[in-house]
Amino acid sequence: MSSNDPDCPFCGIVAGEIPGRIVAETDRTTAFLDANPLAPGHTLVVPNDHHERLDDLGEDLASEVFATLHRLTPAVEAAVDADATTVAFNNGPAAGQEVPHVHGHVIPRFSDDGGAP
Ligand code: 5GP
Ligand code: ZN
């Protein structure tokens, strides 16, 4: 069973109803380019079902999200010739989460980019 929120942009991208530059998909996760990237190649990984916070995911789905991040991170790094990546979740509004659909950020980093985003 899947669940989505009609007001959620990431549910819209997963459903193909909102344009998104999808870079990878598994049965239960989707990765797409961030619309306002902090660096070229900034990618988001989401569970296809709508859940607000990381702790709302079951362990299986959390593992699949992490597996997608794990597989994608070196590919993102190579695609933009980055030196490293920051991989992060803003988990809840007080942590800066603006879109209430769990998403992991893969942010390419460069040795001369001046430090933490
Ligand atoms: P947060 O602050 O919630 O961790 O990050 C939300 C991220 O989603 C931001 O980096 C923002 O640029 C990105 N974003 C917000 N709306 C959209 C959208 O409609 N499409 C895409 N591709 N990215 C979005
Ligand atoms: Zn959603």
From TrEMBL:
Any GO MF annotation of the entry: catalytic activity
UniProt motif (Histidine triad motif) ranges: 101-105
HIT domain ranges (all copies): 9-116
Superkingdom, taxonomy of origin: Archaea
Catalytic residues (positions): 103 (tele-amp-histidine intermediate)
Gene Ontology biological-process annotations: nucleotide metabolic process
Residues of the signal peptide: none
Record-given protein name: Histidine triad protein
Organism whose genome encodes this protein: Halococcus hamelinensis 100A6
